[in-house]
Design goal:
Heat Shock Protein 90, binds adenosine-5'-diphosphate, 14 helices, 2 domains, binds magnesium ion
């Protein structure tokens, strides 16, 4: 369906796409992953000519769209694009957003376009919003409208550029749900995404881009389970972390718990893991700031510069853990656990594997959520 040959793009002296070659076949769902700045957006933008490639060829159904003689607009219409920032027409209603293209560019009648628009809204779960304006919708809803608008032009392939990265974590799954639905309907798609678990289970092929090239490509299991090349491996196995600093006992527990929830949701961890992590953090914090007759940890922790909490999720071994580190104070945190009334320690041991080490003048307590 699409063949790309030697696609090269310079911005000034900056070589952003370096002789890229690939092919997209009908029905394929291609995920494009890679570090920021590696040229993923530029690649999509060149495919549908939002950027003019410096040189190379892009064939769509056998016709080179970079050829001056080709009918660019007709060819472009075969490709829909969904952006990170939705790009809806703010002055039009939801239904207006879905009818303007078909009426102006596909010569559809107003009533046909409305009927089609309503069907599409139904498909993305927004049938009740046809008269709303984009500003009245949540980010997740706006992005679903943007997908419906894209479909209203009957594209043969849809290009998605990080469709969920501007969204609150709570809204990611509603948008991914719509994309999954398109996938099961057989739509050809190329999706730039940071949602690795999504890429893993929705795509038929994964392209890993680095420095303007397709550095490695393969099936999801090849790329995510047995990546062959060094940079791919590093990228796939990287560990993601969420850090939080607490100065003294007057920390904002709600803010911390909501941060944990957002971090976990981003990585598609289930509700049970989120709950367990929140509980472990809350319990350990209580121990850290324990105020007994002989020790006043509140003061000690505050005087020693507070406490760092670092939550990590490693995709490689699917491990969710949290580390508390603080300047060494009278006793270790675990000692406190052992001396406490026994309730906390039992809760903790039931849901996490806890260990503690002392490095130089720091204590680090690690809990791995089971
Ligand atoms: P990615 O989407 O993988 O993060 P991009 O394609 O956005 O990467 O960017 C690749 C490189 O191209 C970056 O160095 C970026 O600064 C540069 N770039 C992107 N768009 C433009 C532009 N319109 N003008 C100049 N430089 C650009
Ligand atoms: Mg980008």
């Amino acid at each position: 369906m699409i063949t790309v040959e030697n696609l090269t793009k310079y911005f000034g002296n900056n070589l952003v796409l370096n002789n890229l070659n690939t092919e997209i076949k009908k029905g394929e769902i291609i995920s494009i992953i890679g570090p920021s700045g590696s040229g993923k957006s530029t690649f999509l933008r060149c495919l549908n000519l939002l950027e003019e490639p410096t040189y190379g060829k892009i064939f769509i159904d056998g016709i080179n769209i970079l050829d001056k003689k080709s009918n660019r607009n007709a060819l472009r219409q075969k490709m829909g694009m969904v952006f990170q920032s939705f790009n809806l027409f703010d002055h039009l209603t939801v239904l207006g957003n879905l009818t303007i293209g078909p009426v102006k560019l596909l010569n559809m009648s107003e009533s046909q376009a409305k009927e089609q628009g309503r069907q599409l809204l139904n498909m993305v779960g927004l049938a009740s919003k046809e008269n709303a304006f984009p500003s009245e919708l949540s980010g997740g809803q706006q992005q679903r409208v943007a997908i419906a608008r894209c479909l209203s032009m009957h594209p043969e392939i849809i290009l998605f550029d990080e469709p969920t990265s501007a969204l609150d974590p709570t809204m990611v799954s509603e948008v991914l749900g719509v994309i999954r639905r398109l996938a099961s309907d057989g739509m050809t798609m190329a999706i730039v995404t940071h949602e690795m678990n999504f890429a893993k289970d929705v795509s038929t092929r994964v392209l890993y881009m680095d420095e303007g090239k397709i550095y490695e490509e393969g099936t999801p299991s090849e790329i995510f389970e047995t990546p062959q090349k060094e940079k791919t491996r590093e990228f796939i196995y990287r560990i993601r972390t969420f850090n939080y600093h607490i100065n003294d006992k007057n920390y904002d527990l709600f803010d911390l718990k909501s941060g944990i929830e957002q971090f976990c949701a981003r990585h598609f961890l289930d509700a049970r893991s989120i709950f367990r992590m929140q509980l472990v953090v809350e319990e350990i914090l209580q121990l850290c700031f324990f105020e007994g007759e002989s020790v006043n940890r509140c003061r000690l922790v505050a005087e020693s510069g507070g406490l760092n909490i670092s939550i990590s999720y490693s995709e490689k071994n699917n491990e969710l853990s949290v580390e508390f580190s603080t300047h060494k104070i009278l006793e270790t945190i675990l000692n406190q656990v052992e001396n406490s009334d026994g309730i906390s320690i039992n809760i903790l041991k039931g849901i996490a594997n806890i260990s503690e080490t002392t490095i130089d003048d720091k204590i680090i307590l690690k809990a791995v959520i089971s």
